[in-house]
C-alpha cells in the first residue's frame, strides 16, 4: 500500500504540535483515497515530522477527536476515508490565502484600512491591556480571483510589534506572520463565536458592506491566544459562503 504520495517535512520549532498537525493533515489530504489507509508507526511518523512521540500522540489524539483518523488498538492508526471530503476543514484554521486556494481559487489579499485606535473597556478586558492602550486595527480583503470572498478586521496591541509597523508590512504575509516575526508571538489557538448576518447590517466593516457581493455573511468573532496562552489579537472574519464552504467531522459522545 502506497503511503507517500506527498512528502512529510519536519515541523518548525515554533509550536511543533500545531505545525505537525497542519503538516499531517496536508499529508493525509495528499494520499490517494481508499479504504484502510494506515499511517506509519509512531516512531517513524514522529521522525518524519521532527517532533517527539509525546507531541505526535497529542496531535493524533486531536485528529481522532476531529474524526480525521481512527486509532485501533493493536492495529495502528488509520485515515478515516471520509476525511478526504473535508475541504476546507473548519477545525484546521487555515490562513485565508491558503484556505481560498484549498477551495480551488487563485487568491490574493489587499490591506484596505490600517490605523491606531485606543482600546475600549471591552477590548481591553479581552486582550488584558489597559483601557486606552494603543491598538493596531488592520482590515484586509481576500479575493478569490476578482471576487471579495473574505474580509478580516484585526485588533492587536501596538506594544507587541512596535510603533513602526506600516501597511506595507501587512501585504502578502498574514497578521499571524507579523505577530511572530516582529513580536515573537505564535498564535496557537482561538476561541470563536459564529453567526450569520445580512451583509448590509455589518457596521464594523465598510469593505464587507461595499466589496462583498453576497446577501449574507458568515461571521467568525475570535480571540486568539499565543504559545503561552495569552490573548494577543481580536479579529472578526466575514465569509462569502458561496465561495468558502466549510465542513467538519464531529465525534459523537452521546451516551
In short:
By secondary structure, the protein is α+β, with helices and mostly antiparallel strands. 27% of the residues lie in helices and 29% in strands.
List keywords for this structure.
alpha+beta; six-stranded antiparallel β-sheet; three-stranded antiparallel β-sheet; 27% helix; disordered N terminus
What this model shows, in words?
The chain is an alpha+beta fold and 255 residues long. 27% of the residues lie in helices and 29% in strands. The protein has 8 helices and 9 strands. The protein has a 6-stranded antiparallel beta sheet with strand order 4-5-6-9-8-7. The chain has a 3-stranded antiparallel beta sheet with strand order 1-3-2. Strand 2 and strand 3 (76-79) form a beta hairpin. It starts with 15 loop residues before the first helix and ends in a 16-residue tail after the last strand. The model is unreliable at 1-14 (pLDDT under 50).
